[in-house]
Amino acid sequence: MKLRKAGIATVSVLALALTATACGDDKKEGGSGSEGGGKSIKIGIKFDQPGIGQKTPDGFAGFDVDVATFVAKELGYSEDQIEFVQTPSADRENALKNGDVEFIAASYSINDEREKLVDFAGPYLLAHQDLLVKADSDIAEGTDLNGKKLCSVAGSTSAQNVKKEIAPKAQLQERGTYSECLEGLAGGSIDALTTDDSILAGYAAQDQYKGKFKLAGLKLSNENYGIGVKEGNKDLKDKINKALEKMVADGAWEEAVKKNLGPAGYKNEPAPKIGVIVK
Amino acid sequence: MFDFLEGYDLLGAFWTTVQLTVFSGIIALVWGTILAGMRVSPVPLMRGFGTAYVNVVRNIPLTVIIVFCSLGLAEIFGITLGAPNDFKLQGFRLAVLGLSAYTAAFVCEALRSGINTVPIGQAEAARAIGLNFRQVLTLVVLPQAFRSVVGPLANVLIALTKNTTVAAAIGVAEAGLLMKEIVETEAQLYATAAIIALGFVILTLPTGLFLGWIGKRVAVKR
């Protein structure tokens, strides 16, 4: 009898909780899409990628941050109306779906699986998987990576690429963060750190590593960074695309690339055309 | 609905989980028993070591221990457990080392509570017929102690099974890492999490039920 009472209580609590969330969702949907005014805008970025999106003692810095700021300005928000929210890789789709953020610029590669769940504006940067090696390393174009010791972040797209396609026989050390890989690279226990060249450039440009590492310049994959918006929000997508076109046209794009990724000798691809995805 | 799983070695990943559990479980059981013996031994130095080990190791987060095994032992001290050039094998062995070192502390404490359930008269009688400490422990006390702690040890084993996911932090290709990989590419957060959770329930539920049944059968009736 007691059990049944507990059961009924649980069910009613659950039902309440569900209806409550449903209400919340409705409200959020009503609020999104409105522009400018006194309202703030929430933008999803990464907090832990130097050169791309990083939380610093005095705010946020990185290429994604600059792009997001430019786009937000074009949408009619001033700089102090922007609220940056951390969106780790696994959370990005849900953050958009739930309306937690208006759009996401977080080294977000456009791929088929993701396009089923969210819409992408852009791309705004064409990155490639590449290697970061010691400045005096002889790993260069055309090197066979099988038998080399590589390091990447556990579970990341780059690590999976290595295992499946690029070099299934290479020794792949998977670690929790890129910083841990950098320790190994500096200490000589691994030959190269591999992930998107834009991210690598950001790490190599950090003050403590300046001059120690270089990019090998291999184009191992194509990663089209796009700005994720909620599925079906065509209005916002078009506006962001216009903003991105303007950013490239007036030179702010080139400037942001040079500022954030330049110090490591990163040779960026020309700004990608909106809607053109390089496979 | 689950066609996004195509191309992922779900069974292989769970097989690695099982291997991690079995190897770490056996080593932890042996090492934990030795530690428990130390903690009840008449030699102060051994008692001190056992107490210190348990209190230090069980209070360090497992992630820290596992990452230390990889970054500290392998990277800095060059302890690669016989696999300096094979990161896969090296990671697996280091994970087994970390998991068993950590789990042994819990095995030791479970076993020590079992030793406390053996009436003091048993040990006294054994001493009176001339058995030394090792004989008292292995012939009289431990066999009875083990029979009373099958339940608590089953808890430790289930916790160990789930703790193996921490090995993903150093790239061991077990179920936890596979979950990270699927979530990264497939954008199917909830379905993936549910499948991995179900896998673990399938592994741990029978373990718990079986060991619970064994525990009831072998319990010492007092």
Automatic annotation (TrEMBL), chain A:
It comes from the Bacteria. Residues 1-22 form the signal peptide. The keyword Transmembrane helix does not apply. CDD domains: PBP2_GluB (cd13690). Keywords: Signal, Transport. GO terms for cellular component: extracellular region; outer membrane-bounded periplasmic space. Pfam families: SBP_bac_3. Belongs to the bacterial solute-binding protein 3 family. This is Glutamate transport system substrate-binding protein. The lineage of its organism: Bacteria, Bacillati, Actinomycetota, Actinomycetes, Kitasatosporales.
UniProtKB/TrEMBL annotation, chain B:
Belongs to the binding-protein-dependent transport system permease family. HisMQ subfamily. Residues 14-211 form the ABC transmembrane type-1 domain. It is found in: Cell membrane. GO terms for cellular component: ATP-binding cassette (ABC) transporter complex. InterPro entries: AA_ABC_transptr_permease_3TM, ArtM/GltK/GlnP/TcyL/YhdX-like, MetI-like, MetI-like_sf. The chain crosses the membrane at residues 12-38, 59-83, 189-214. GO terms for biological process: amino acid transport. It is a multi-pass membrane protein. Its main location: membrane. Keywords: Amino-acid transport, Cell membrane, Membrane, Transmembrane, Transmembrane helix, Transport. The lineage of its organism: Bacteria, Bacillati, Actinomycetota, Actinomycetes, Kitasatosporales. One of its GO terms (molecular function) is transmembrane transporter activity. This is Glutamate transport system permease protein. CDD domains: TM_PBP2.
